[in-house]
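Backbones bend. Our protein:
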Amino acid sequence: MNRFNGRLALQQRVLPGYRAPFFDLLAAACDDGMSLFAGAPRANEGIATTDRLQVANYQIGKNIHLCGGAFYLCYQQGLTNWLKAWKPDALIVEANPRYLSTPAAVNWMHERDQPVIGWGLGAPPASGFREKRRINFLRQFDALIAYSQRGADEYADLGFPLDRIFTARNSVLPSPIWELPSRPSTFNLQPVILFVGRLQFRKNVDLLLGACAEIQNVRLVIVGDGPEREAFEELAAEILPSAEFVGAKHGAELKPYFEEADLFVLPGTGGLAVQEAMGYGLPVIVAQGDGTQNDLVRAGNGWQVPPDDFEALVAAMRNALSDTARLRTMGAESYRIVKEEINIERMVDIFVKALNAVQ
């Protein structure tokens, strides 16, 4: 693994629990250590955060949330004082213009001739004042790290130098250390469709229930819990009584469900479990989203469908289940992608490459 010969500071609005392994691995690649600054989410966000890192230093800040929706802004109290205390050789911040305290932190670093890297999803097309504001915001960074190739392309389209754009494909898991699970050449009685995630309306589990009811002769296993579980169970009782709701499972508890499944389907937003499913050699069907899916889910290992499009979901599932041999080949490609290309070790390598490029 590449190394950064320096002291790193990294700002986040909040610290989700799923990001902790990545940040600890990145800290381990920094010769003089890493400190992370983050605050608490809004009460209604439903983000599962952590207050503990094993390797990185963690400084808890105070987030002051302003307005909401399209007008949301956040000010992180104590950000500059943290930098003064940590004295980093480089700073990585979220490339989000809604965070009002970021420019002062960038200025503090630049006054000391220290580089700042922005890390973000990209910059979707805008016009007029919004585009000019976005360009000016991005110009303050010495380099940019994008979550996806689409995000990197969007930064390039705004004129940011190509040699200072790095693509660290979004991942939350290490490369699998187990072998590709072996599956039979034919389905065992019925193909097993697996969903793993929080049971919320935005996950579109209702569409998945409807699709399985229309296709018939499939076994649907739904792993997860959440505020809409009862509503989904009531719907299942009407249209797909055989649907199995097994509740929330975590860690090693998930392994038998992934190994037994033939196809993983996530028809709504979010979905940290997609990479885990791929690590167990599952082809995947996901809803199109912010661009990170484009790198993860390709023609060789799955299908992307428009969100909220029931007919497209049914068509993709029928297509997937129509050829067992092809499905197994696609599952093997899923495994290869997360084994070799998209994992937290690869993310750390790209982050370190970006840091060394601006030193």
Residues 304 and 336 are 19 Å apart (CA to CA).
